[in-house]
Amino acid sequence: MISRLKVWPLTHVRRWASSANSFNLDFGDHDLQYYSVQTTEGEAISALIAGYIDIIVRQVCISHVAGLYLLCDRSVCIDGLFSML
Protein backbone atom coordinates (compact mmCIF):
# COMPACT_ATOMS: atom_id res chain seq x y z
CA MET A 1 0.00 0.00 0.00
CA ILE A 2 1.24 3.48 -0.88
CA SER A 3 0.85 6.16 1.76
CA ARG A 4 0.82 9.87 1.00
CA LEU A 5 3.29 11.97 2.90
CA LYS A 6 2.18 15.31 1.49
CA VAL A 7 -0.14 16.56 -1.27
CA TRP A 8 0.16 19.71 -3.41
CA PRO A 9 -2.08 21.03 -6.21
CA LEU A 10 -0.42 21.02 -9.64
CA THR A 11 -0.81 24.79 -9.73
CA HIS A 12 1.81 24.98 -6.94
CA VAL A 13 4.54 23.35 -9.06
CA ARG A 14 7.07 26.01 -9.96
CA ARG A 15 9.57 23.83 -11.82
CA TRP A 16 10.68 20.22 -12.18
CA ALA A 17 13.60 18.32 -13.62
CA SER A 18 14.45 14.73 -14.39
CA SER A 19 17.55 12.70 -15.07
CA ALA A 20 18.29 9.07 -15.83
CA ASN A 21 17.90 8.12 -12.16
CA SER A 22 16.02 10.91 -10.37
CA PHE A 23 13.10 13.33 -10.45
CA ASN A 24 13.05 16.73 -8.71
CA LEU A 25 10.22 19.12 -7.82
CA ASP A 26 10.25 22.75 -6.68
CA PHE A 27 7.05 24.26 -5.27
CA GLY A 28 8.40 27.80 -5.09
CA ASP A 29 6.85 29.83 -2.27
CA HIS A 30 4.50 26.96 -1.37
CA ASP A 31 7.24 24.88 0.27
CA LEU A 32 10.65 25.62 1.74
CA GLN A 33 12.48 22.65 0.23
CA TYR A 34 12.99 20.84 -3.06
CA TYR A 35 11.82 17.26 -3.35
CA SER A 36 13.90 14.63 -5.07
CA VAL A 37 13.15 10.96 -5.61
CA GLN A 38 15.37 8.23 -6.96
CA THR A 39 13.65 6.59 -9.93
CA THR A 40 14.34 5.29 -13.40
CA GLU A 41 10.97 6.78 -14.50
CA GLY A 42 12.00 10.45 -14.21
CA GLU A 43 11.47 11.23 -17.89
CA ALA A 44 7.98 9.68 -17.88
CA ILE A 45 7.01 11.57 -14.71
CA SER A 46 8.30 14.82 -16.23
CA ALA A 47 6.27 14.27 -19.42
CA LEU A 48 3.13 13.50 -17.40
CA ILE A 49 3.45 16.66 -15.30
CA ALA A 50 4.20 18.74 -18.42
CA GLY A 51 0.99 17.45 -20.00
CA TYR A 52 -1.11 18.39 -16.99
CA ILE A 53 0.53 21.83 -16.77
CA ASP A 54 -0.25 22.38 -20.48
CA ILE A 55 -3.92 21.59 -19.77
CA ILE A 56 -3.97 24.13 -16.93
CA VAL A 57 -2.31 26.78 -19.10
CA ARG A 58 -4.77 26.17 -21.98
CA GLN A 59 -7.66 26.36 -19.52
CA VAL A 60 -6.49 29.76 -18.30
CA CYS A 61 -5.91 30.99 -21.87
CA ILE A 62 -9.32 29.83 -23.07
CA SER A 63 -10.99 31.40 -20.02
CA HIS A 64 -9.12 34.64 -20.66
CA VAL A 65 -10.02 34.72 -24.36
CA ALA A 66 -13.67 34.13 -23.52
CA GLY A 67 -13.48 36.91 -20.92
CA LEU A 68 -14.40 34.44 -18.18
CA TYR A 69 -12.62 33.70 -14.95
CA LEU A 70 -14.39 30.70 -13.49
CA LEU A 71 -13.66 28.77 -10.32
CA CYS A 72 -14.94 25.24 -10.65
CA ASP A 73 -14.20 21.62 -9.99
CA ARG A 74 -10.99 20.70 -11.85
CA SER A 75 -12.49 17.58 -13.47
CA VAL A 76 -15.44 19.59 -14.81
CA CYS A 77 -13.08 22.23 -16.21
CA ILE A 78 -10.85 19.65 -17.87
CA ASP A 79 -13.82 17.83 -19.41
CA GLY A 80 -15.15 21.15 -20.68
CA LEU A 81 -11.73 22.08 -22.02
CA PHE A 82 -11.47 18.95 -24.15
CA SER A 83 -14.90 19.55 -25.64
CA MET A 84 -13.81 23.09 -26.59
CA LEU A 85 -10.56 22.03 -28.34
Descriptive account of the structure:
This protein is an alpha+beta fold and 85 residues long. The protein has a single domain, classed as PH-domain like. Helices cover 41% and strands 15% of the residues. It has two helices and three strands. A three-stranded antiparallel β-sheet has the order 1-2-3, covered by helices on one side. A hairpin with an 8-residue loop joins strand 2 and strand 3. The C terminus is likely disordered.
Structural class: alpha+beta
Spatial order of the strands forming the largest sheet: 1-2-3
Spell out the CATH superfamily: Pleckstrin-homology domain (PH domain)/Phosphotyrosine-binding domain (PTB)
Specify the helix fraction band.
Answer: 40-55%
Approximately what portion of the residues adopt beta-strand conformation?
15-25%
- Distance N to C terminus: 37 Å
The Rg value, from CA coordinates, equals 15 Å
Number of domains: 1
Weakly predicted, low-confidence segments = 71-85
> Topology as H/E string?
EEEHH
Give a count of the beta strands, DSSP E runs of length 2 or more: 3
Mean pLDDT: 75
What's the main sheet like? 3 strands, antiparallel
Quick one: overall form?
globular
| Level-1 CATH class name | Mainly Beta
CATH architecture, by name, is Roll
Q: Please report the number of helical segments.
A: 2
CATH topology: PH-domain like
Described by its quaternary structure, the protein is single chain
